Amino acid sequence: MEDTLVTLVKYRYEYRAHILRDKLEEIGITCAVSNLSVFGEIDGVKVMVMQKDFDKALKIYQEIRNLYDNHSDDVIEEGD
Known about the structure:
The chain is an alpha+beta fold.
């Protein structure tokens, strides 16, 4: 569904998620940042976008990632 939230990326550090969130919101993509997980254990900070915005958001994420190439170990996993 187009109105489903999907994970774009999961970061190790919250500040990285907020940098991406700010950039996405700047260009009009609504997103959410969450660090909640099972049993309250934090295993990363997710940046989530609507399915309909995923491709556009992925391009922005890739641009941001290229800016921070030397911090690539901050990314825990990328969305599908």
